[in-house]
Amino acid sequence: MDSNDAEQPSSLRKLFATANNQRHELERSAAQGSSAYQDNLRAAIGAFQQCQQLTDRLAIFSPNETEDDIASGDLQYLLTNHYLGELLRQSSTTDRKTVLQQAQTAYELYLKLLDTYDMLSKTDTKLYQRYLSNRDDFSLLSTSDPTARRNTKITRYKQEQELKLKLRSLAQVPLALQYDDAASREIYLAEIQLCTHNTFHALDIIAQELQILALMPQTSPAPQPEEREIDYRHRNGIPNKGHDNYSERLDPPISQLLNNGKAGPILSKDGKPLKPFTLLDSRQRFQNGVFRPDHALPTMTIDEYLAEEKRRGGIIDGGGQTSGGGTAQEANEDDLEKADVETMKKREWDEYVEANPKGSGNTLNRG
Questions:
Q1: Which range (15-29, 33-47, 223-237) has the least confidence?
Q2: What's the pTM?
Q3: CA quadruple 290, 295, 296, 298: dihedral positive or negative?
Q4: Contact, 207 vs 136, CB < 8 A?
Q5: What are the DSSP calls for 309-341, one per residue?
Q6: Within 13 Å, how many C-alpha atoms sit on residue 336's CB side?
Q7: 76-121: pLDDT as tens digits
Q8: Ramachandran region, residue 59 (left: φ > 0; alpha: ψ -120 to 50; beta: rest)
């Protein structure tokens, strides 16, 4: 271990116990997306990596040994790479593909070590061989038949529940048997079986996620400030370092801006247009259109509008008889001639009404 970790436990047993306690605390934590959780996760990953390095340095496992040659207290170290793969899968980083590949490598090393000691069951051995033959497309559900896929899921679920029940029952041993070598060995072997079951499930998920990431478009890394400046100078025609006309200014001079289309001849000598242009009827119209509001302005004053409405007959002046409405002018009592005319008019109307009663005009179309 490094000198910075001098305060950490020196023995492998204590170091593995510390890493395992950190893993259990992460499992009980609810805020998995917080920065504190990720900090604790990185600490647990570093602890298990140190365990694996120390295990390799001490040569606890050898390919020339069998399962019976492993001490009961050393069986727990077989799970180091499995726990490391579980923790790596929970890492939240921008480079998700690299993290998944690291977790996949840890799981593979775990299965390789078990296969070396012939600790894989027949079913797990077949799955391991299938994984080695096709790592990228590995799947627990190899068939496309929906019924077979459903039966495989049910079978693996039942196996997982049985392994959990077995491990739970073995963990509830009497106090007198907690330090028994045979009892602890059986617990470690049951935990290895459960972890192996979960390892193949994790490899299946990792393969699917890597396939999805392979279909995503590749994002180029953000350019450095120097690269962005060089690209900006290149696109705008500004000289870079080493050129005779190099300048620290990023904005081009006025003469260059004018030459890039804001001034200069419109037509070439052959009569071909060199840049877009607009035909106008006069220079004054073009000048008036430069500085103007972006909204429509009124074209006449209020007085002009009222005069135009009056001219079109939209406004009537005065009132009474001249406006075609209002009450009738009151009769002048002193004007006897006009009074006689009004009286005769009313008498003639009364005589007409008496001579022509209502409904007497229509005598032909009665039923």
A1: 223-237
A2: 0.55
A3: negative
A4: yes
A5: HHHTT----S-GGGGT-SPPPPPPTT-HHHHHH
A6: 0
A7: 899 999 999 999 988 888 788 889 999 999 999 999 999 998 888 8
A8: left
